[in-house]
Design goal:
Elements lengths: L11 H15 L8 H8 L3 H13 L3 E4 L5 E4 L8 H8 L25 H17 L2 H15 L2
Antiparallel strand pairs: 1-2
Helix pairs in contact: 1-2, 1-3, 1-4, 1-6, 2-3
């Protein structure tokens, strides 16, 4: 049996950003949630998540409030936030300077390697899917997988 090989990997910060925001989207009430609770629920490193949530708040995706009853909340409805918007607020997952595996520094549109066209098409497909998918859809998928795991 072949091992499950995955070629596309989001940067860790982008994955944590999505996981943390999904946690907030899954909350039934609209109250603020403590960073510690988000980190604990997703088994995410609190200090790293704190930096990520600061970036998300600065990008206008999260609201933060200090003091009693404070924490983080979505700045907009989950169906108005796209996954690519979350990712781009952290970093570009498709840097223009990415290197070809077969011909580092030599592969380009003008001088493509044997995989070039396939990789470019694949990246465009992933980018479009991330642009089209809302946080609400990601939260629904997470909710469904959790419920299925409990059956």
């Amino acid at each position: 049996m072949q091992p499950n090989i995955r070629l596309f990997r989001l940067p860790m910060a982008a994955r944590y950003a999505i996981q943390g925001m999904v946690h907030l989207a899954l909350r039934r009430d609209e109250s603020y949630c403590l960073l510690e609770d988000v980190a604990k629920s997703g088994k995410l490193p609190k200090n790293f998540l704190s930096k990520i949530f600061q970036d998300l708040a600065q990008a206008g995706l999260l609201e933060s409030r200090r003091g009693r009853g404070g924490g983080y909340a979505l700045a907009r409805s989950a169906d108005k936030i796209r996954l690519m918007e979350i990712i781009r607020s952290i970093q570009d997952p498709f840097p223009e300077q990415s290197q070809c595996v077969l011909a580092p520094g030599a592969c380009s549109d003008a001088k493509p390697c044997v995989l070039h066209e396939s990789v470019v098409a694949w990246e465009e497909l992933i980018r479009k899917r991330l642009e089209d998918t809302t946080l609400a859809e990601a939260a629904d998928a997470r909710r469904f997988s959790k419920e299925a795991a409990n059956l």
